[in-house]
């Protein structure tokens, strides 16, 4: 009966591969935030424990609305050391946030776009769509930017946010 033995070994090898992949992905950060050379890493579990907001928004690619649940980008940036509120002025207004994605798609935002005093919308790092984890093709994290007329800044497979100064005066 060598056939069941081969099947058993194949099943065990497959199980080992799945467990290895799961342990590797569990140890990798879901999102990193880089500010002034300092990196803050958040696992999927870390993000799931943070306060979430829900927003219903129309997905132009799917041509339908979804309820997205995620953490406001402003909250994540503030936890990582970015100054908001009355302290966001002068040099702070020369900062941009670059969102990097696993598929090499990068998007740039002015830091002020995340501040309530400058903007009436909440940009989210979402981990759930319609009460479920994001589909693999979109996640595990996605940037949702409600109110944009074109969804070009809705970033799937988000991996990091990087805060950098811009302009000639940024080097002063």
Written account of the structure:
By secondary structure, this protein is an alpha+beta fold. The chain has a single domain (29-171), classed as Sulfite Oxidase, Chain A, domain 2, CATH 3.90.420. Helices cover 23% and strands 34% of the residues. The protein has three helices and eleven strands, in the order αββαββαβββββββ. It has helices at 2-27, 44-49, 73-79; strands at residues 31-35, 38-42, 53-59, 64-72, 95-101, 106-110, 124-129, 132-133, 142-144, 155-156, 158-165. Strands 3, 4, 7, 8, 9 and 10 form a six-stranded antiparallel sheet that branches. A hairpin with a 2-residue loop joins β7 and β8 (132-133). The N and C termini lie far apart (76 Å). The model is unreliable at 8-26 (pLDDT under 50).
What's this entry about, in short?
This protein is an alpha+beta fold.
What is the level 1 CATH name? Alpha Beta
Helices and strands, in order, run as HEEHEEHEEEEEEE
The amount of beta strand, in percent, is 25-35%
CATH superfamily: Oxidoreductase, molybdopterin-binding domain
- The computed structural class is alpha+beta
Radius of gyration over C-alpha positions, nearest whole angstrom: 20 Å
**What gap, in angstroms, lies between the N and C termini?**
76 Å
Question: What summary fits the major beta sheet?
Answer: 6 strands, antiparallel
What is the helix content? 10-25%
CATH architecture: Alpha-Beta Complex
Number of strands: 11
Integer tally of domains = 1
Please state the overall shape, judged from the principal axes of the Cα atoms. globular
Mean pLDDT: 83
* Total of DSSP H or I helical runs spanning 4+ residues: 3
